[in-house]
């Protein structure tokens, strides 16, 4: 369903009226297209304090293909290296670096603050680095103009490992992500021969791929060069085949809760999987006092238990190749909760628990990363059926004052899936425009 309010505020009369009434004025987001694959304008490289990684970071930013400058009238992005900030007094350098230039950021611009993990052994450093999180989340809520703000914590000596993350955040692909904290480990990134097709030669399986977010994920993975297997329930076979045919992909009609689901997936990928995307999910909303046991059980089974069972089986069988990527779909409902969704919120919070526990072990034992996307209000057929006022609240209650699109979830999934994202592990990234819920 079209967002008529967003369209209205893009017109001169609508802009005037909403400004007079003090209503939200969402900026139209510029997402990736063939015509606009990158941000337009220079990236300002700023430093707070005396950083030890200035030269390495400069080289990494230059490798993104963006123009990097020390000064510009209308920068497309601001990258602030705050890795050296280790005292409360040192935070003044953050203000000094961004205060003079933040107003000049171009509409739809990006602000990325680089920090390090707060130290358990130095409470002064921990306080200063944790302060960056509050700073970033607040700046994301006030910056406006469709701009976004993120914090990337880099492990010691791991600047090069942040390459894929900076490419993603400093691009139109991250249009609906803001106020996020992403940690980058020191795992060495795998090389990418062609950044126009970073998934070339890799095989991906996407569950729930017949329509909606799953179909969009399959489409973006195929666009980026992956061979895709689209999985969905047999009842959705017509839509599934249509999606697969459009992408030159393989259709696999299969109920992911079936006892033999893992075996059938393995049979469909005889050379193994490089990317496993757990997107299939259902809702059976009702308040707990009115929720029959079967409604509870069906949501937990599809959204969580099937993910646990198939992931365990595919890892044990070696179906997920070394260097592989597992991406699961959580939700901000699993972070903030939602009225009438105790079953759904429990299942999605469970996905977050799965990611945090499995990620380090999967990396150590199988060479596989495990991450999750946590969508907020995304414009789908399901949200189009939500009552008008609830739908409008869902759209406006975020820093970008609009709903996201399925492609926003897909772009985030594709970034997790890249071979160069080996250092991104155990992360849960909200694709919600910095929703005010759970923020």
UniProtKB/TrEMBL annotation:
PROSITE patterns: ADH_SHORT (PS00061). Signal peptide: none annotated. The keyword Oxidoreductase applies. Transmembrane segments: none annotated. Its EC number is 1.1.1.100. GO terms for molecular function: 3-oxoacyl-[acyl-carrier-protein] reductase (NADPH) activity. Keywords: Oxidoreductase. Belongs to the short-chain dehydrogenases/reductases (SDR) family. PANTHER family: 3-OXOACYL-[ACYL-CARRIER-PROTEIN] REDUCTASE [NADH], SHORT-CHAIN DEHYDROGENASES/REDUCTASES FAMILY MEMBER. NCBIfam families: PRK08261.1 (NF006110). This is 3-oxoacyl-ACP reductase.
